[in-house]
Inverse folding.
């Protein structure tokens, strides 16, 4: 079955710096790759997603890149702010099974003022 | 729009006891999911409903876990009897019925089994 590896497990940056989180997946049939942000005591919140027919997607300070050949995708956050501090999860799923998201283990991002 | 509602927020029980969680999805969302999130890990799908029918329950431990979605709206997830390893956050999510729609998660129920 699908396996999603996520790195790093923790990431500390200074406010204003960029943060990059990387994920790899094993199943070449996966074609949907969302990123979720989870704050303490809350459920995961979708921040951006990308599908296999797109190589890059951007939404303000957040961007995601996908390399299907290498089976990896990355989250880029620019101009980080303290409110970006949270746990970020990448996930992958297959066409026709989009609800069965396979999640990585998460990255705890700390943005220091 | 109102988000996915879950209750209770916290529950502490002893092993071998039973427990039930409730979920009310976003209005109009036909698809409902229950995920289990163990501390320090990403969520794992337990069961997926489309309206009131089960689409995928391949990862649900059916000897102790059960779930239902009567009338295609609210859902309950039950554990009977609970084990120590069931300690986790149980997340409910919903999405519209159309293809490739994103999941919206509730804030979950944190279960502690002692």
């Amino acid at each position: 079955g699908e396996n999603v590896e996520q790195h790093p497990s923790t990431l500390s940056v200074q406010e204003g710096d960029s943060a990059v989180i990387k994920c790899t997946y094993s199943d070449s049939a996966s074609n949907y790759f969302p990123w979720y942000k989870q704050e303490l005591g809350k459920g995961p919140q979708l921040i951006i997603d990308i599908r296999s027919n797109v190589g890059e997607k951007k939404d303000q300070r957040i961007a995601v890149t996908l390399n299907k050949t290498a089976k990896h995708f990355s989250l880029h956050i620019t101009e980080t702010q303290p409110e970006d501090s949270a746990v970020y999860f990448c996930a992958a799923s297959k066409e026709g099974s989009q609800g069965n998201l396979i999640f990585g283990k998460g990255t705890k991002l700390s943005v220091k003022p | 729009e109102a988000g996915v509602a879950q209750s209770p927020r916290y529950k502490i029980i002893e092993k071998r006891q039973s427990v039930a969680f409730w979920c009310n999805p976003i209005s109009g969302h036909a698809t409902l999911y229950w995920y289990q999130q163990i501390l320090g890990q990403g969520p794992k799908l337990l069961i997926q409903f489309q309206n009131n029918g089960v689409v995928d329950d391949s990862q649900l431990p059916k000897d102790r876990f059960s779930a239902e979605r009567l009338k295609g709206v609210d859902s309950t997830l039950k554990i009977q009897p609970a084990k120590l390893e069931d300690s986790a956050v149980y997340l409910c999510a919903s999405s519209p019925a159309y293809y490739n729609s994103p999941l919206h998660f509730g804030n979950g129920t944190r279960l502690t089994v002692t």
User: Anything to note?
Assistant: Chain B touches chain A through 25 residues (CB under 8 Å). The two ends of chain B are 37 Å apart (CA to CA).
